[in-house]
Design brief:
globular; single chain; mainly alpha; 267 residues
């Protein structure tokens, strides 16, 4: 197993955990808020308020830079993979869930480590959004969702049997693609109007009932996007995964991210 491109320090882990906690609150606040809470009265403002996730993600990146863990080679590789993801996103531009960028996030995170995957996900999303014009109140939610996908792939590194590596990564890609789509629905579902009662968010109901409504909403309206995303990502990982991983690992070995410079006094 190659050295991670971005070794995680205690401060970096704390920043990732803090960002993830805010991310969970950003997605699930409608179910976590008490019934009849004043928070629910400002439901239409919540997506914009949780746009604070963007600077938090930048704080994570800056903390990694500040630790000296994210060197020039890691930054260069991050830029290269983000540019690749942005180019891939133009192929489908998110139409009907056709989003080949996830192979970059999944395999990049798996080959280069959890810290790199957590940074790679949102950077790919922002780069591709700038290229395709996909900037809006949904962007922070896409960023944190992609960060989790890259982080999850990175946490699998070194834990999968070599012979089953690609099939298990394919399975992870399917689960991650569907979960990402379902989470993204939470940024607009609570404020969506004219839905059938069984699919709509009810501010007077408890979280268990709203959770059931959310699941029904996903199964009824979202699978037309989530299934194609999962299928495209799985097929790409299954067919190209071995070669892409070999290339990324070769780059990682050549870059020698864990090398420590030694200074010798001149004769």
């Amino acid at each position: 197993m190659s050295a991670p491109a971005i070794p995680l320090s205690g401060r970096s882990v704390a920043a990732i955990l803090a960002t993830s906690v805010v991310g969970v609150l950003a997605f699930f606040w409608p179910m976590l808020a008490p019934q009849g809470s004043a928070v629910l009265a400002h439901a239409s403002d919540a997506p914009f308020l949780f746009g604070l996730l963007v600077p938090l993600l930048l704080v994570v990146t800056m903390s990694l830079l500040g630790d000296g863990a994210m060197g020039a080679k890691a930054v260069a590789l991050l830029g290269l993979l983000a540019a690749t993801a942005a180019a891939l996103r133009t192929i489908g531009a998110g139409f009907a869930g056709l989003e080949p960028i996830w192979i970059v996030i999944v395999l990049g995170g798996y080959a280069l480590g959890a810290g790199f995957g957590f940074v790679l996900g949102p950077v790919c999303i922002v780069a591709s959004a700038l290229l395709t014009g996909g900037i809006g109140p949904w962007l922070p939610f896409q960023m944190i969702g992609a960060a989790w996908v890259g982080l999850g792939a990175g946490l699998l590194a070194g834990r999968l049997p070599t012979r089953a590596e690609i099939p298990l990564l394919t399975a992870y890609s399917v689960v991650a693609a569907v979960t990402y789509g379902w989470l993204l629905n939470l940024w607009f579902w609570p404020t969506t109007t004219n839905l059938p009662e069984a699919l709509a968010f009810d501010p007077t109901a408890d979280w268990t009932e709203n959770f059931q409504h959310w699941l029904a909403f996903n199964l009824t309206t979202s699978m037309g996007y989530d299934v194609p995303r999962a299928v495209v990502t799985a097929l790409l990982v299954l067919t190209l995964g071995a070669r892409v991983l070999a290339s990324l690992r070769r780059v990682s070995r050549v870059a020698a991210f864990d090398a420590t410079p030694a200074f010798v006094e001149a004769a």
